[in-house]
Amino acid sequence: MTTRNLQELALAVMHRLSSSDIQDSAVGARELDIITKRYEEKFAELKFEGLAYWTSTAIPLEAFNAIVRIVAHEAAAPLGEAIPEEQEADGAGPAQQIGVIGMKMLRKHMRRRMSGQPTVGEYF
């Protein structure tokens, strides 16, 4: 399973929140600290709700974009940014805050997640 780390999460969150281009070195200690704390708080909630199956430091690629949106929503105010809005992937409906879109994406991912259990087949 391909994963992303907290530094990659912080960079992706800053890209999502900032209208200007962010370079890899542009995520400073303050931003990294804010984003990491918001992620840890949200990760605990998601774990409690059964929506996080990974370790806190290795975010699966399949859930990464959803987590970026959720954390960006949580970190926007402390970073002095407005909470961005976007439309869902299908383009239907009005624009919504990215945290709402992220939770929908994560719930969709969790519904489709493999159980890891073997499947028994019957052949005629």
Task: Lay out the secondary structure.
Blueprint: E1 3-4, H1 6-17, H2 29-48, E2 59-60, H3 61-75, E3 85-86, E4 96-97, H4 98-112
Antiparallel strand pairs: 1-2, 3-4
Helix pairs in contact: 1-2, 1-3, 2-3, 3-4
Describe this structure in words.
- By secondary structure, this protein is mainly alpha-helical.
- It has one domain.
- Helices cover 50% and strands 6% of the residues.
- The chain contains four helices and four strands, in the order βααβαββα.
- It has helices at 6-17, 29-48, 61-75, 98-112; strands at 3-4, 59-60, 85-86, 96-97.
- Strands 1-2 form a two-stranded antiparallel sheet.
- The termini are far apart.
**Total beta-strand segments:** 4
Strand content: 5-15%
The tally of structural domains comes to: 1
Structural class: mainly alpha
As a percent range, the share of helical residues equals 40-55%
Give unreliable regions as ranges: none
Euclidean distance between termini CA atoms: 35 Å
Mean pLDDT: 86
Could you describe the largest sheet, including whether it forms a barrel? 2 strands, antiparallel
What's the tally of helices? 4
Give Rg in angstroms. Answer: 16 Å
N-to-C series of helices and strands: EHHEHEEH
Strand arrangement within the widest β-sheet reads 1-2
Q: Which overall shape is indicated by the principal axes computed on the Cα atoms? A: globular
